[in-house]
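hi! just following up on the protien thing from before. the input was this:
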Amino acid sequence: MGGCFIKQYVEVAAQILGLQPTVFEDMEKAEYTNCGSQWAPFHNEGEWDLAHFLMKNVGQTKMDEFLKLLLVHVICQSGVSFANACAFLKYVDSLQTGPAWTCEMIDIVGDVVAEDGSTQWEQLELWHKDPVKYAMAYVPECAYKDSEGKNHIYDEIWTADWWWDVQGKLPAGAMVAPIILSSDKTSLSVFSGNKKAWPVYLTIGNILKDIRQQVSMHAMILIGYLPVSKLKCFKKTHSLAGYCLFHHAMLLLLQPLVDASCNGKVMIFHPILAAYVADFPEQCLVACNKESQKFDDKGLHAVYKPFWKDLPFTNIFTCITPNILHQLHKGIFHDHLLQWCVNIVGEKEVDTCFKVMSQHPGIFTVSQWTGTEHKEMQRVFMGLLSGTVDDHILIIICSLLDFIYYAWCQQHTDLSLKSFHDHKHVLIDLGICEDFNVLKIHSFANGYNTEYPDNKCDYMEQMVLWLQQQEAIHHKSAYLAWRQLYYAKTEVCNIGRAQVVIL
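and the predicted 3d structure came back as:
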């Protein structure tokens, strides 16, 4: 980070214990052990290029037709060693890939009693892979705008107080791998069975945000598919059963994180849950909170074994990350700022001014606003209240509207909300509100609000097999790129040594 003052972590952290071969070096060793060909199991470079093209661009149902084309055999003069999709996919399945997918069955016993007196039940599938094998770690630091350290910069996760505090709780030399989870229930089809998938993604905070947010960089991995069911075997406790199923499946999915952090293994890194990215309904699901009520004893679901219960150094309520639509547009602006101004000016006055400035039928005539409509409302909000409220109120409005746009920025400081905090007492003085215990404001300290890709394929078993084959091709492609660069550098070094000998 340029133009800032860095405070280094002075204790021992991320201690290097030794050197191990990289994944690519292991692949290179296996290459020479087997047949000495970098293109194996494919016969040559042309066959590998064809395989890469087929996996990225041609569906499995069309592969057989493509491979029968005369053009393919003309271009590949010696022909291809795989005559159909089945033979080709056997080659792909033999390539090295990441952790294998496994399916775990979950039995759900409901509260609906059948005519024969038996209790109805369901058997659901949880598809998952080990997330620990992808971890890595670095060292925390604090960044400031000034040399006195009074204006803290919040940029990457290692510049936040969280990592610094957690690092101090770990043994000397330990490494922190901040785990960032994301989930989003997704519709795969509407007319053919109304099938849904519930993917769970994982990335780590050690990776730059710019890289994490690029789908092409593969910095986020798919670690599992949660079971999706209508739970027809439940009637009275249907909602609670859905919460319990989610937490039980997540507990099984994340058990490797608990084992890696608590069992004293040789590995010195500590994977610790730092953030959970989800929309508002899933945020309530993660926090065991009912969507329609405030967070109090009456708004909690009785989930006695939430998945985060045994995760070390984890406060799930600080892990819930903001969602731009629900926490800013619908939360800060619509639920709070708009209501404050209505209490000051009156609903009729606000609605009349809005109709004049925007040529819209009115703020209060629409039952549900989209994100785009909220943005359009915010563009004219300062203008419609100018001259109708006190200047201090306008400053509060301006500072919050500015921050809604600042939230998209890569970097924040302690001054991002200073103007709002300096003037917010006016609302209390006017009796508009009693306090500012608005969690949505405080949650925007880091850039976690990221849209992650969904995988919409056929269905579960076929889907994970397809993903594994795609991953295998990606691994091979990355290895060949590394190999080419490695040998190019080696050749340059050898040429340099030869020149020295000649001189």
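The CA atoms of residues 41 and 94 lie 8 Å apart.
The chain has 19 helices and twelve strands.
cheers
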